[in-house]
Design a protein that fits this description.
This protein is an all-alpha fold. It contains 11 helices and 2 strands. It has a two-stranded antiparallel ribbon. Helix 2 packs antiparallel against helix 3, helix 7 packs antiparallel against helix 11 and helix 9 runs antiparallel to helix 10. The longest helix is centred in the last third of the chain and has 37 residues. The protein starts with a helix and ends with a helix.
Length: about 270
């Protein structure tokens, strides 16, 4: 149950973050897509945000539930159910007859439309071999904007404050992507005879579950973790701002890369 003080704090946080949401919604990136090659550039950076979102999620699952043996019940009665439901959807969703994580689905979407997965594949291979995430990321060949975004995410994770991690997780989700971009995907998908169908499904699925299911769940989780502690609410607000500014910086980096690509294409 969320009490009146927690509802008030959530409303305060929402108003605090509104200017950043407005900047994201109005970002010039969304109007700059012209070709499927532009989309490739976007996906080759954005996939790292899709991946590190799962690291935020699994950190929350590890801390809010018990994954040790022998098992004991965690003290977060409401949040442990919420986070397990979110994990189920994000890590084991159903697409057609397949059970698949949204990250794996995104990789399929990249390959289906011709985007390169070289950098993200290299990082995942290094992680599977036991490399620390820092070196796996640095050696992957990922663009600097993507690397910077991941490093910022892990700053929040390594800070170890559950309420801050929950806030970064909750307020930096994929429902930030506006209708303009989704319309571009739908139009390109029609022109490419369905080669962007997986990407279209990914975006629409996130709008659906973030808005109707996971988003409200995550807000209740923040309310439970912060309680009536004003200091925790402030730290949660700071973490949410940090996550949104990191997302803005990623969008700036992708926009710069698109511009540089166009300049190269016009070079003699």
């Amino acid at each position: 149950m969320i009490f009146s003080k927690q509802i008030e704090q959530l409303q305060i946080m929402t108003e605090r973050l509104r200017p950043l949401y407005d900047r994201l919604a109005a970002h010039s990136l969304y109007g700059s897509f012209e070709t499927v090659e532009d989309l490739h550039i976007f996906m080759e950076l954005h996939v790292f945000a899709v991946w590190d979102f799962m690291s935020l999620l699994k950190t929350l699952q590890r801390e809010l539930t018990c994954v040790e043996v022998p098992w004991v019940p965690s003290r977060f009665a409401a949040s442990r159910r919420l986070i397990n439901e979110i994990v189920l959807g994000e890590e084991s969703d159903v697409y057609g007859t397949d059970t698949v994580s949204h990250f794996e689905l995104y990789l399929r979407a990249m390959r289906e439309c011709g985007a390169s997965t070289t950098a993200i594949d290299a990082m995942i291979a290094s992680l599977r071999d036991g490399s620390p995430w820092e070196s796996a990321l640095a050696l992957s060949g990922a663009p600097e904007a993507a690397q910077r975004f991941v490093r910022n995410t892990f700053l929040v994770i390594d800070g170890g404050k559950l309420h801050a991690i929950a806030a970064a997780f909750t307020f930096g989700r994929e429902d930030l992507i506006p209708d303009m971009f989704r319309s571009f995907i739908r139009d390109q998908n029609a022109q490419l005879h369905g080669k962007l169908e997986l990407m279209r499904w990914y975006l629409e699925r996130h709008i659906e579950v973030d808005g109707e299911e996971h988003g409200p769940m995550a807000l209740r989780m923040i309310a439970e973790l912060c309680g009536t502690d004003d200091a925790k609410w402030e730290e949660a607000g700071e973490a949410a701002e940090f996550a949104l500014r990191a997302r803005l910086a990623l969008w700036d980096g992708i926009a710069d890369r698109l511009q540089a690509s166009r300049m190269m294409s016009f070079a003699p």
